[in-house]
Design brief:
It comes from Streptomonospora halophila. By secondary structure, this protein is mainly alpha-helical. 49% of the residues are buried.
Length: 483
């Protein structure tokens, strides 16, 4: 492959002043050559992808080069000379550059027009005023998704070169948006759709986070989703069979007023494929929110009892974006259902917490508290320990109280729960929730809910049974023990 001249995927690579574009930018061309492969490669593609990610990951200073890097990654992935089993590597890095803070992108779809206005304001304003305004927006955020987004913006703006990093994030989006048609070509062809890690799957993950390309992308997704099954046996394993990530992407992009998407997902739910049926139910909720059919919520709830569990069901179709596991992102996305989906989200919550860490864990905890206590911006007083809290609230508190101390500290959960007037210290929070002070430091598998824990049921894989709540605690009021 002629990588840097003619029609190669790296044509023009050496025409860019990479060193002037970003700190350590001079290392980028060599890494892109290694990712593209060929006789000049100095390292394996996986090592090159990891090294380039470490260099340009958001919000590292070299992320200012990410828009140009993203363009070459698309070219590498889509070039006909790139082996099909190689294409997922550049696409995986592309996803990390495009969605560096995936928890800010669900449940509501990104409004890229407002994003452009915000970016233009940040670029043209005094940096101190930008930081002050973001602090205000963090404090006044009407919901947790806005809070997460403004918190990321504030943390970025507070860095040296913060405004440039904010501009680069939008530039990555626009770069990939301009290449949506190229990425769509990866949905076709048997080689792109087969295997454990098919390029079509990764292309769908990337396309799902391009709401600006929705009108172009979701009709292409509909070509395979919801088609009647061929019972003749002649098309088993056909390249026309839907990739589960296509169902996920359709839920992220399809408009609520297009009956074709709704009908296609309804057929997919009834097609008998466990993973695609579950993904279609979640996608229907993403599109219709509180107006989704009850069957969607029933199928989501049934996922708890399925052999793969929520971790396997979300993991089959949803992406692992950075430190955000698929089940955590799925839990946040189900917030689209508002008050209608509380019961189902409570079922998903243990799995969403089990694999999450750091900022993702704090995001899940914040979304769970918002679900039962309302937005943090509306909290005025500390929660009264004698208050008669409802069952859903108590279940959320129990799940948070059971998180190990190391997890609590690494995610800064004290700050999160304190925003709702709850005790900031883990021991005080556990006492408030009525959890025995000797709680296990081992995590569970996310499959045991609050009721089971309060009754001392051992979670599969845990060190032993959970302790029953102390009489008089919140869980004691829910499961017995007096008020």
């Amino acid at each position: 492959m002629d990588a840097t001249t003619g029609s190669g995927p790296l044509h023009g690579l050496d025409d860019i002043d990479w060193s002037g574009l970003a700190p350590r930018g001079g290392e980028i061309p060599g890494l892109l050559r290694d990712i593209a492969g060929g006789g000049t490669a100095e390292r394996g593609v996986d090592d090159a992808v990891a090294a380039l990610f470490d260099l340009v990951r958001f919000p590292a200073p070299a992320y200012t080069a990410a828009p140009r890097v993203a363009d070459f990654l698309v070219s590498i992935a889509c070039h006909p000379d790139t082996p099909a089993d190689w294409r997922s590597r550049p696409l995986s890095l592309l996803l990390e550059l495009l969605a560096p803070a995936a928890t800010t992108l669900v449940p509501q779809r990104l409004d890229d027009a407002l994003w452009r206005d915000e970016a233009a304001w940040a670029a043209g304003s005094d940096v101190d005023k930008v930081r002050d305004q973001y602090r205000t927006w963090v404090q006044e955020a009407p919901d947790e998704q806005h809070y997460r987004r403004m918190r990321v913006r504030l943390d970025t703006a507070a860095r040296d070169g913060g405004p440039e990093l904010l501009q680069a994030e939008l530039a990555v989006y626009d770069t990939v948006l301009a290449r949506a048609a190229d990425l769509l070509t990866l949905l076709d062809g048997r080689d792109n759709r087969r295997g454990i890690d098919p390029p079509a799957e990764w292309a769908c993950y990337v396309l799902a986070f391009l709401p600006g390309a929705a009108a172009e992308v979701y009709p292409a997704l509909l070509r395979r989703i919801g088609r009647p099954a061929d019972l003749s046996g002649g098309s088993s394993g056909s390249s026309d069979d839907p990739v589960s990530a296509e169902v996920f992407a359709l839920g992220m992009l399809a408009p609520a007023d297009d009956p074709a998407a709704t009908v296609a997902l309804a057929h997919e739910m009834a097609a008998g494929h466990l993973y695609n049926s579950f993904t279609a139910a979640v996608a229907m909720v993403q599109i219709h929110g509180e107006k989704a059919p009850q069957e969607c919520f029933t199928r989501i709830a049934n996922g708890r009892r399925a052999r793969p569990g929520y971790r396997g069901l979300f993991g089959d179709a949803w992406p692992h974006c950075g430190e955000t596991p698929p089940e955590s992102l799925g839990f946040l996305a189900l917030g689209r259902a508002g008050g209608r989906g509380v019961s189902e989200r409570l079922g998903v919550l243990p799995a969403a917490l089990a694999e999450a860490e750091g900022a993702t864990l704090a995001a899940v905890a914040g979304a769970a508290l918002e679900m039962v206590l309302g937005p943090r911006s509306a909290v005025e007083d500390a929660v009264d320990p004698s208050a008669d809290l409802d069952e859903d609230t108590l279940k959320v508190l129990w799940e948070l109280a059971e998180l190990p101390e190391r997890t609590w500290e690494s995610a800064g959960l004290g700050e999160t729960v304190a925003a709702w007037g709850l005790p900031e210290g883990r021991d005080e929070f556990r006492a408030f929730a009525g959890v025995d002070g000797s709680g296990s430091e081992d995590g569970d598998d996310g499959g045991t809910d609050a009721a089971e824990g309060a009754q001392g049921t051992a979670a599969p894989g845990s060190a032993g049974p959970r302790q029953a709540p102390q009489p008089g605690g919140l869980l004691g009021r829910l499961f017995g023990g007096g008020r």
